[in-house]
Amino acid sequence: GMSVMAWEVISAIPLIFLALIFLPRYLQRGIATIPDFIEERYDKTTRIIIDCCFLIATGICFLPIILYSGALAFN
């Protein structure tokens, strides 16, 4: 309802601001993903640790939902 609409309207202003300020910096450095940013900001070891955390979180959070919804579709 209205709360979703308000979120969309209000978030447009900061998103435009962030795109104008930060996007050129990231594109200039060749950063396309969060792990790319982590590697540039810290080091390769930290990037690997963050990659592993992302993979584990995806496996724990999203994979069961996807498998369950697929099972419901076949059931």
Write the topology of this structure.
Blueprint: H1 2-29, H2 34-41, H3 44-74
Keywords: Membrane, Transmembrane, Transmembrane helix
Membrane topology: Multi-pass membrane protein
Transmembrane segments: 6-27, 48-74
Your description of this structure?
The protein has about 80 residues and is an all-alpha fold. It folds into two domains: about 1-30, no CATH class; about 35-75. It is about 90% helix and about 0% strand. The chain has three helices and no strands. It has helices at about 1-30, 35-40, 45-75. Helix 2 (about 35-40) runs antiparallel to helix 3. It starts with a helix and ends with a helix. Keywords: Membrane, Transmembrane, Transmembrane helix. Belongs to the sodium:solute symporter (SSF) (TC 2.A.21) family. It is found in: Membrane. GO terms for molecular function: D-glucose:sodium symporter activity. It is a multi-pass membrane protein.
Defining traits:
single chain, 75 residues, mainly alpha
Task: Summarize, please.
By secondary structure, the protein is mostly helical. It contains three helices and no strands.
Distance between the ends? 32 Å
What class, by secondary structure content? mainly alpha
Element string (H = helix, E = strand): HHH
By DSSP, the count of extended strands is: 0
The helicity comes to over 70%
